[in-house]
Design a protein that fits this description.
single chain; two-stranded parallel ribbon; 5 strands; globular; binds zinc ion
């Protein structure tokens, strides 16, 4: 959207209308982005693919580009609900508040508030949709030697180290 591309305009119009951007628009955006020079030696995708349809499209994009390492960071639902419910943003400037900001925004001093889509019932509904889409995705990838599951219910530095180790092991195990 920021780059003002045609696909970005389609995505923005869809979101402004309150709809979720469809698979094919998302796939087009990713395909376009992966063609740029800085993605030629490798890249990290976070939050894509989210559906099996997107995953099959990604496999087609990877044709001739080397291997794909897939890392699933698993966190129990109750922990996710707690984490998301604790998430705050600044009412004035919209910054995401790290845990150190307890009462006011560390950038502008504005009041912190919960994101409108982070209420517990909304979060549980989002998780339901996510799990419905993601379980088939895990099934899609789980038989591959480059698929790894990480326990995400650990301190961030431990999760980071586990991701590093998983990617190293996957790369070492399969010629990319
Ligand atoms: Zn602020």
């Amino acid at each position: 959207m920021q780059a003002g591309s045609e696909l970005g305009r389609v995505a923005k119009a869809t979101m402004d209308a309150g709809n979720l951007v469809g698979d094919d628009v998302i796939i087009g955006i990713v395909r376009h982005r992966l063609c740029r020079p800085d993605a030629q030696r490798g890249f990290v995708l976070d939050g894509f693919p989210r559906t099996v349809h997107q995953a099959t499209a990604l496999d087609a994009m990877m044709d001739g580009r080397g291997g794909l390492v897939v890392v699933d960071i698993a966190v129990p639902e109750e922990v996710l609900v707690r984490r998301l419910a604790a998430r705050r943003i600044c009412q004035a400037c919209g910054s995401n508040a790290p845990v150190e900001w307890t009462t006011a925004c560390g950038k502008c001093g504005g009041p912190l508030m919960q994101r409108s889509d982070d209420g517990e019932s909304v979060v549980r509904e989002r998780l339901k949709v996510y799990l419905r889409q993601t379980k088939p995705l895990v099934d899609y990838y789980s038989a591959r030697p480059t698929f790894r599951t990480i326990d995400g219910n650990q301190p961030p530095d431990v999760v980071t180290a586990a991701i590093d180790a998983a990617v190293d092991a996957a790369v070492a195990g399969v010629r990319l």
